[in-house]
Amino acid sequence: MNLEDFYRVIRNGHIRAQGIVDTVPDPLLVLDQNLLVESANRAFHETFDVSQDETIGKHLYELGNGQWNIPELRLLLEDVIPKSTAIIDYQVTHDFPRLGRRTMLLTAHRLYHPDNISRTLLLSIVDATERRQQEAEKDVLLGELRHRMKNFLALVQAIARQTLVEGRSGEQYRNAFLGRFNALVRAHEFAFADNRDIALQHLIERTLEPFPAHSSAVVIESGPAVVLTPGQLQPLSLILHELATNAVKYGALSAPNGQVRIHWTVETDSARRLRLWWQEVGGPPASPPVVTGFGTRLIQVAAAELGGHPELDYGPAGLKAEIIVPLGPSSEG
Fold first, then answer.
1. Cα 287 off chain centre by
2. How many domains are there within the chain?
3. 332 located within any domain
4. Alpha-carbon Rg of the chain, whole angstroms?
5. Hey, is 308 helix, strand or coil?
6. What residues contact 217, with CB distance under 8 A and at least 6 apart?
7. Which terminal Cβ of the chain has fewer Cβ within 10 Å, N or C?
């Protein structure tokens, strides 16, 4: 083989190797023992929107706006080559230039060499922003599910205690209990179903149907006609359900003569807003929780999802709550 053929073989091998690296969809960097960039694949340049001149020969800690210049990461990387260690999924959350806030997972290995003399480091970077967001959302959903189940079981116990026993046979008690229990199940299904637009009053009636221990325990005062969109339905159902659950466990609906009164208005001055009031009377005094529980946070999150906010007033007469929700043009009927 002459020198020209030899150079051709080397060149073709280099092109093929670079082609393989550029085919990898995640950003890759090849670093020397001093953590200077020897090579970067196409995904790295495209992901971080940088040129070769901004990358090759630069120190890792100088790239971008210094996003990799982390003391802990420095220590880990400096051990990879001399100690043949590895870094697996080291998380970096940072405001990256032109990308915004992202979560990246870094994995670093010493580049394989058959004689074990490699002084080169291969660093791969995976954008895990969406994965981390999904994991966080899943944690919230699981927490909400646990909270829902805990409250559901507490409500079943409350229904069992509040269903009158005196003067009833076992069959009559069973039928009365199951009637309220089935109403509770229907209310849960209603809150989480995909529904078309529904009137506010209908939502309130359906959501609170299982809770009254007697006919006057929940008073719903008629207000302006308001039609809720499917996107407004579930958050508001959750708020009402949470307020009713707390009333049964700790508030007015836990007392024989307690009562919940609900009314609402629609403001149309500068912007159209729904103001919904929940007032408890005849029950034990309400006191602010020492620690904000999941139920309170759920009310706040659901109200924020509606674009509004809740105001909770804990007083000696009972809990008062005001929910303020912006309404779109089609939210009134």
1. 29
2. 2
3. no
4. 31
5. coil
6. 211, 252, 253, 258, 259, 260
7. N
| Helix, strand, coil share of the chain (percent; to 5) | 45, 25, 30
Of the candidates 195, 236, 190, 224, the residue with the CA atom closest to the CA atom of residue 210: 190
Q: Read off the pTM.
A: 0.48
- Range(s) of the domain holding residue 44: 3-127
DSSP β-ladder status, 37-40 and 87-96: unpaired
Report the CATH number that the domain containing residue 16 is assigned in CATH. 3.30.450.20
Q: What separation in angstroms does the CA of 260 have from each of 156, 282, 285, 321?
A: 19, 9, 14, 11
Task: Quickly tell me which residue has 């003391």 as its tokens.
Answer: 71
Output b/e per residue, 132-162; b: 16+ Cβ within 10 A: eeeeeeeeeeeeeeebbeebeeebbebbeeb
182 φ/ψ angles, rounded to the nearest 5 degrees? -65, -35
Instruction: For residue 265, give the 3-state DSSP assignment.
Output: strand
Q: What's the whole-number mean pLDDT along residues 82-108? A: 85
What are 259-295's pLDDT values in tens digits? 999 999 998 877 788 999 999 999 999 888 777 765 6
DSSP states along 37-61: EEEE-HHHHHHHT--STTTTT-BGG
Cβ 235 vs Cβ 324: under 8 Å: no
